[in-house]
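Before drawing any conclusions, I needed to go through one protein's amino acid sequence and its backbone structure tokens, quoted below without any editing.
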Amino acid sequence: MSTFYLPIFFILLALSLALLYFYKRFRYCHSRLKEALHRIAETNNFMSLFSENLTSEHGLDNSMNKVASYVADIIGAQSICIFKLKDDELNIVASIGAFPLTTTNQHYKYVRPRYIKDFAVRDVFKVGEGIIGEVAETKESLFSKYALTDDNIPNNGIVPIDSLMAVPLIYEGNVTGVICAINNRRKNKTFSNYQFKRFKFMASQVVLAQNFVHAYSSLAEQQRINQELNFARQLQASLLPRSFPAWGDYIINSFTRSAKEVSGDFFDFVEVDSNRLLIVVGDACGKGVPACMIMAMTRAFIRSNVPRFTTLKDMLTELNTNLYNDIDDERFITLACCLIDKKESTVEYARAGHTPMFMFIRNHIREFNPKGVALGMLPTELVSVDTVSFEFTPGSSLFLFTDGINEQTDINDEEYGIERLRENYEIFSKQGLTSKSVIGKILTSIDDFTKDPNISQADDQTMVIIRSPLK
């Protein structure tokens, strides 16, 4: 070759090599782009399929099985099992196909495939124990391409393990579970390296699904709780008197506020006949929905049965029998009952473990404390209820309240107290205020006593004042 053509040859060679390099880079980039687009499509398909199963509570419960089924189709696996890590244990949350690594009743399981899921959920794998446990502990994926010849893979079930892939599910550096695939659907039943690569990618989608299920489960649970609380609030609002009864010249005012969403306190006015009115104030043990339900049971019994009783003692005794038989041992309710007879201008009063009743009469306070234990705590043969009867003097007033009033504490954890309540009730009554104003003054004194607006209300608070007419 002449020296004239030699530079041209090297130039052409360099151009060829450059073209070859750029062609390979193009093929590589095209392959990566195609793979990325494929993964995006798979992710979109995955999320679309997954979201379709979150439209109902049943879909939510079945969503992880749908995930397992989708992964099995993408990978081409005969069986997929998804484990969730909780308290150092791996529990099966989804299983598609016969899964030979489960431990309970293997032979029975594979003879009757429809029981696979029911039995599988009983299997528990400890972290660090067995193949699944080791994957969770080491955070390392496992690929046994030829599992039949792998001494580390147990092959003692009816369904042989020809090939196995197991990948840890990791979120923010922490293992949340493991996903395992067994046996290719093709005749040779052996997974390829490409399938293992795709399986590891799909594991990240399973982690995403786990997070969605957890989020939706929490949301569904919160929605259910909110619905129950809303129902309880509506129930309680329907049970409390909407207005004070127009009962001759007697004036009745009441107030209640709950410490939680719903209250265990209640008050009620039951017109026994044209001359007698029963006023009840109750305080169920605890707060929230359970206390509210005991309150509803008590109110229902009193309203449906009061006409057939001749004394408050008989009514409370039978009410105790019903509550003792129907509520938990830790639950009970305290009651204060005033039966006012406007024809005779008398009051019959009974209490069952409740706070005392105050009466403002002739510019001083009388306190009534007949004996009686809270209802629902003891069998009826151990329960005794006393009553007191007295004249309801014209112009006097009765004050009933729950212990949320006197037990409210201040910043030093000191209680408002019975004596302070008694003194303030006397002071405000002597000022000639209306019953409604007296209640407002007491509430203001309680709020002033706490001194700190950040102190939460410790218990439900209820007050009822009944004022007899002036002659």
